[in-house]
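Hello,

Our lab assistant flagged a job as stuck in the queue for most of the afternoon. It eventually completed. Since we weren't sure the result was trustworthy after the delay, we are filing this so someone can double-check. Below is the sequence as submitted and the structure that was eventually returned. Let us know if re-running is recommended.
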Amino acid sequence: MITIDDIIDINEGLLGRENTVLNKSGIGSALSSYSYYKTKQEQACSILRGIVKNHPFQDANKRTASLTFILICKNLGLSIPSDSDLIEYTVKIAESKMGIEEITKMIFGDYKKQLNVNENIIKQASLLINKTDIEDYNIRQAKKLIAQLSKKADWYYDVSQHALCQNIIRLLENYTWNSNIREALRLFLEVIKKEIIA
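-- returned structure --
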């Protein structure tokens, strides 16, 4: 999880000096803004916009926002725009009154469509797991994580869909002899954009 001090370190590193903060509460406000949004794409964009708009540093606010955004995207398993695109996006954010949904569409495209696709895949995988007659610790834990994964409103930027899918896969990977679990694994791997080798 990215902290206020991490963001200050990014800015000081860019400027090559210490004590660059103009408004520390502006950093905190930007960082906490993610809690108003459900999707990790929107959460990342809310922090990006917050740093750009709050202008909490003496200089390099857009560059600091961009580097922070890249770190958050890496943590969440999100695609990262090219450097030139990210520069263009931060300038647009600085010069406009774009809302979070508009910013998120600009950066990630039709992200809501992909979320709906993933939600359907997760539902299919959940049904397959529930059809199995295996009852042991790993399967029970996997079912709990699937229930957590299904609650999109509970996804905050430090608990990513990608990480939950990876944990579910680890719990299920020794049960590929079961056809339902093997198909569920394939579906979870589809969500994190990998392929299962049967």
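-- support follow-up --
The delay was a queue issue, not a problem with the job. The result is valid. DSSP finds ten helices and no strands in the chain. Residues 148 and 154 are 8 Å apart (CA to CA).
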